[in-house]
């Protein structure tokens, strides 16, 4: 039986190395690629990767944006977020971006193994402690952390070119995300979006 080929994308070396040792001890899975950033992930990506264990918060960009790029390069690849976030709005946004599984960083290795095998077989895995019922009952759209970050950078006077570079995305992708932010906030312009976000206490 072929092993499950796993890529680790995690910027903390000690976490990544520990996971690699544990995974490589398993008979049915192996780590075939590693990365500590978005750039390294794209450089080290292999076509035989089945699952990416992904830290959403990376030093040079948004892990959710990375998902979009990787899926185009390797169709059929699956993502499991190694996350400290348990916010239902964030989880829904990640699902929309193509993340199939969620496992907290405090989970045991047995739970991580279960997430890998279940995600590969069934397509979705949500750790029981991450509030599935809350997620399923969400009715109103909210801004993700990355969207709030974009608004804060705009409020700070940063240019679209600089913001796109910091987030490791293209300017056209950034403009689509800004349009999506405006839609979520029910406004037509970025100026109105900023005013709304300030009023809601989302940005300073």
Which helices and strands, and how do they pair?
Layout: E1 4-9, H1 13-24, E2 29-35, H2 38-44, E3 51-55, E4 57-58, E5 61-62, H3 63-73, E6 78-83, H4 88-96, E7 101-104, H5 109-122, E8 125-126, H6 132-136, H7 145-155, H8 160-167, H9 171-185, H10 190-199
Parallel strand pairs: 1-2, 1-3, 3-6, 6-7, 7-8
Antiparallel strand pairs: 4-5
Description:
With 204 residues, the chain is of the alpha/beta class. The chain has two domains: 4-136, Rossmann fold (3-Layer(aba) Sandwich), CATH 3.40.50.2300; 145-199, Orthogonal Bundle (Arc Repressor Mutant, subunit A). Helix content is 50%, strand content 17%. It contains ten helices and eight strands. The chain has helices at 13-24, 38-44, 63-73, 88-96, 109-122, 132-136, 145-155, 160-167, 171-185, 190-199; strands spanning 4-9, 29-35, 51-55, 57-58, 61-62, 78-83, 101-104, 125-126. The strands form two sheets. The chain has a six-stranded parallel β-sheet, with helices on both faces. Helix 9 crosses helix 10. The longest helix has 15 residues, at 171-185. The termini are far apart.
Largest sheet: 6 strands, parallel
Which residues form runs of ≥5 with pLDDT under 50? 136-140
From the alpha carbons, calculate the radius of gyration and give it in angstroms: 18 Å
Number of domains: 2
> Given the helix and strand composition, which structural class is it?
alpha/beta
